[in-house]
Amino acid sequence: MMDAMKRRWVPYLFLSPYMLFYVAFGLIPILFSFYVSLTSWDGIGKKTFVGLDNYAFLFNPDSYFFTSVGNTLLFVAVSLPLQMAFGLAIAALLYSKFVKWKAFFQLVNFLPYIVTPVAVGLMFNLLFDWQAGFVNKLLLEFGLIEEGIYWLGEPLYARIVIVLMLFWKGFGYTMIFYLAGLANISKDLHEAAAVDGATGMKAFWTITLPLLRPVTTFVAITGIIGGFQLLEEPMLLLGGAGMGSASAVIGGPERCCLTTVWNMYDTAFGSTTRYGLGSAIAYGLCVIIAVFSFIGTKFYREES
Fold it and tell me: Transmembrane residues, as ranges (predicted)?
């Protein structure tokens, strides 16, 4: 009897370090941040309980909550399909028999994804600097423009730069998953299709692409979740030397590039130091991610 009891508790003994760390650094901060979201607190003085006032203030334009959510959705809606389409094309090319040195090209295409967000933001800031940036110099050299474009000072151009940055960083991630998906497709299906006369693009559209739907759904879900966590890249991009005097504007010109996490960070730790409102923004973002995750998981189960 005692031996059976010991065997039953042994797994919990080995799990206890993880559980203790999770409670200390995960569960308690989550519960504490929810409590803070119900208060007015600057991080130093006394907490004042305000109930749901912080959540109600999210609907106020001065909170920039829905502005930041709209910006984030725009970046995800434009960059993610580009990442998936280009990643699939590169994966199909590398999986074919026409490409040599496949491991080398896989590494080269995946490297941007593992570059730190700080480095990515600073690199694109230097590339699109309106005075000394490489992009402007190249366009001027070929005579495509007469004067340097203020890439990071105009809302449209700034958004284009962020979309390009997210595309460059993310397509290698989608490529890896599509390569794994292509490897799991039985070659017998393509051989049977070739016998029936379906080759090339026809076989790709009728066999390969439908069988990659679970991978596509998974990449879309993770891409949306990752997109809503966007912070370092636009913050470093729009806060460096390439911005000039506009760098003082949080979120770029007219706050056109203010993401939800950036808004939360600036509210809680930046210019206003409103921990309660920042926590409310964090929980609002949590609800949005949970909704997209639920919808994506439902589609994923249907496709699987």
Answer: 12-36, 73-95, 107-128, 211-231, 280-300
Rounded Cα distance, 122 and 137, in Å: 18
Residue 87 lies in a domain: yes
| 41 Cβ neighbours under 8 A, 6+ residues apart | 47, 48, 274, 275, 276
Instruction: Name residues whose C-beta falls within 8 Å of residue 202's C-beta, 6 or more positions apart in sequence.
Output: none
Distance between CA 57 and CA 207 in Å, rounded? 50
| Predicted model pTM | 0.87
Two tokens, residue 58: 């999210």
Q: What are phi and psi of 48, to 5 degrees?
A: -115, 120
Sign of CA pseudo-dihedral 81, 83, 89, 92: negative
The 3-state DSSP composition of the chain as helix, strand, coil percent (nearest 5) reads 75, 0, 25
What is the three-class DSSP state of 48? strand
Q: Of 154, 123, 159, 164, whose CA–CA distance to 246 is shortest?
A: 154
Of 223, 224, 230, 237, nearest to 120 by C-alpha is: 237
pLDDT in tens, 217-239: 889 989 999 999 999 889 888 87
Which amino acid, one-letter code, is at 248?
A
CATH number of the structural domain spanning residue 265: 1.10.3720.10
- 3-state secondary structure (DSSP) of residue 62: helix
Do the beta carbons of residue 30 and residue 24 sit within 8 Å?
A: no
Which tokens in the block code for residue 31?
């519960």
Q: Identify whether 21 is part of a domain.
A: no
